[in-house]
Amino acid sequence: MSYSAWIILTACLVGATSGLIGVFLILRKMAMMADAISHTVLLGIVIAFLITRELSGPHMLIGAIIAGLVTAFLVQWLHSLNIEQHASMGIVFTTLFAIGVILIATYVGNAHLDVKHALMGEITFIPWETMTLPFLGDVPVATAMLGFAFIIVLFFITAFYKEWKITSFDPALAASLGIPVIVMHYVFMSLVSVTTVAAFDAVGAIMVVAMLITPAAAAYLWTDKLSIMLVISGSFGIISAVLGYFIATWIDTSISGSMALATGILFIISFIFSPKHGLVSKFVKPATAKIMTQDG
Question: Which CATH number is 3-209 given?
Fold first, then answer.
């Protein structure tokens, strides 16, 4: 594959994986949790590096997952102390992220692990760091990680589709049916963490929030059926990735920033033209009803 093709494929994997996870973040009213985890995984990555002194390997993923679970646990614990949930998220993620930044500045030194890279990503460098996979040959490491993350997310969503659906819409009913709601919650937080750390090299912590939330929010405007919403959200993520890449090459600017811009463009289009909740339909339906009433 060409240099550009690897970048586009990597970006599409970010969009598809984030789009699937984002639907459940929206349905569970946990959009801010994506922002929290996308920042606090930095602490897990830094601690994993300080322990192993290596910038790649499964320990990075493990550190990020642990950081994501710690974030979810602390948010839930503060919320149980009657602190409003969004305030709990703000307290936890700013504190843990600040610790990660301090550790980078104090102990990491000259290693290629910096705050700017963690926040913004560097998708243009991805095709240069490769690994050899059976039947596939040389594949960029970030692309392989994102492909692995996509398979994991798709497997868990497919295998436990009914459980995710019930726990997202009615946790009390799920508990009464014997579904382990707390376990499902932390499994979901693990999936968010896996998605976030896999997307770090591609788009960074800030831009992954846009990919997690905006395509799912746009899909929510088009349908009320969960399965269709998942397909639309994943598709919007892919379209945003491709559109963002071509916008970036057209005006010679940040690829990850252009991807985030593309998600915003798709959301605006959905907000205006979606058949159920769009602005146009809200104006057209009353006008049509009024005309029919007058004709009647």
Answer: 1.10.3470.10
